[in-house]
UniProtKB/TrEMBL annotation:
<feature type="transmembrane region" description="Helical">
    <location>
        <begin position="12"/>
        <end position="35"/>
    </location>
</feature>
<dbReference type="GO" id="GO:0051536">
    <property type="term" value="F:iron-sulfur cluster binding"/>
</dbReference>
<keyword id="KW-0500">Molybdenum</keyword>
<dbReference type="InterPro" id="IPR017896">
    <property type="entry name" value="4Fe4S_Fe-S-bd"/>
</dbReference>
<dbReference type="InterPro" id="IPR017900">
    <property type="entry name" value="4Fe4S_Fe_S_CS"/>
</dbReference>
<keyword id="KW-0408">Iron</keyword>
<feature type="domain" description="4Fe-4S ferredoxin-type">
    <location>
        <begin position="204"/>
        <end position="234"/>
    </location>
</feature>
<keyword id="KW-1133">Transmembrane helix</keyword>
<protein>
    <submittedName>
        <fullName>4Fe-4S ferredoxin</fullName>
    </submittedName>
</protein>
<feature type="domain" description="4Fe-4S ferredoxin-type">
    <location>
        <begin position="83"/>
        <end position="116"/>
    </location>
</feature>
<keyword id="KW-0479">Metal-binding</keyword>
<keyword id="KW-0472">Membrane</keyword>
<dbReference type="InterPro" id="IPR006311">
    <property type="entry name" value="TAT_signal"/>
</dbReference>
<dbReference type="GO" id="GO:0046872">
    <property type="term" value="F:metal ion binding"/>
</dbReference>
<dbReference type="Pfam" id="PF12838">
    <property type="entry name" value="Fer4_7"/>
</dbReference>
<keyword id="KW-0411">Iron-sulfur</keyword>
<dbReference type="InterPro" id="IPR019546">
    <property type="entry name" value="TAT_signal_bac_arc"/>
</dbReference>
């Protein structure tokens, strides 16, 4: 009798997990609060989160064509939308490719094909969330080995591209200098429309402008122990800097 009760408990436990998995994977039965709490940085051209979850067929085409290995597919540990593409800026931001190949590869409309060039991308907004960690403000030179994490991630990929090699070479050139990485490594065609370093002499700091597309490169490449500048997914410049929406 005890064994039967144990089997019944296990059945209920794993059946519930299975149903939850189906709900998460299919993007259904998700409360608005869960969506807000689990908001991810989506690839360029992503439609609204609710619509994105409904349209994405989890084919992985966007991941396969990304030359920077920026796109990952969500698993159960990443909350709702299992199998859907997202970008973890702590590992690799989006480098705003000229032709936006991830959008071109999307067959379902989850990535809107009206996003045709870097300036059309609206993924989120960069924020100097932790100014006390910013080494530019303290005028601390970019330390030796600052790019090791970026090199390690790149070298872990099966097919490292020339674009990635060029990015790493440029990044390595900041070693020992006053930090301007977030501004000078911004990948959009007109980076000064998105971010610049303000202040004269010692203690410069990044300032974000309306042209920021929320690509996450500044967060990825920040040489502080933990990124001083981070991206708020799905928010616009107006949302954060004008209306004061922080979530």
């Amino acid at each position: 009798m005890a064994e039967i009760k144990k089997d019944r408990r296990d059945f209920i436990k794993f059946s519930t997990l299975g149903i939850l998995g189906v709900a998460l994977g299919g993007g259904i039965i998700i409360s608005p609060y869960a969506l807000e709490a689990q908001m991810k940085l989506r690839p360029p051209g992503a439609v609204s989160e609710k619509e994105f979850l409904a349209l994405c067929i989890k084919c992985g085409q966007c991941l396969q064509v990304c030359p920077y290995h920026s796109i990952k597919l969500a698993d159960m540990a990443k909350g709702h939308g299992v199998g859907t593409p997202y970008i973890d800026a702590l590992e690799r931001g989006c480098y705003a490719c000229t032709a936006v190949p991830c959008v071109l590869a999307c067959p379902s409309g989850a990535l809107d094909h009206s996003c045709e060039k870097p300036e059309d991308i609206k993924m989120g907004i960069a924020v100097l969330e932790f100014p006390n960690k910013c080494i530019a403000i303290t005028n601390t030179p970019v330390p030796k080995g600052h790019s090791k994490k970026i090199h390690d991630f790149t070298n872990s990929q099966r097919n490292v591209t020339q674009l990635e090699k060029d990015m790493l070479e440029k990044l390595d050139g900041f070693e020992g200098k006053q930090c301007t990485i977030c501004a000078d490594m911004c990948p959009i065609p007109n980076p000064l429309s998105a971010i610049s370093m303000i202040g004269s002499g010692n203690g410069k700091k990044p300032e974000v402008y309306e042209g920021c597309i929320g690509c996450g490169v500044c967060e990825e490449l920040c040489p502080a122990n933990e990124p001083a500048i981070v991206v708020k997914p799905r928010l616009t410049y107006e949302d954060y800097y004008v209306k004061g929406i922080k979530a």
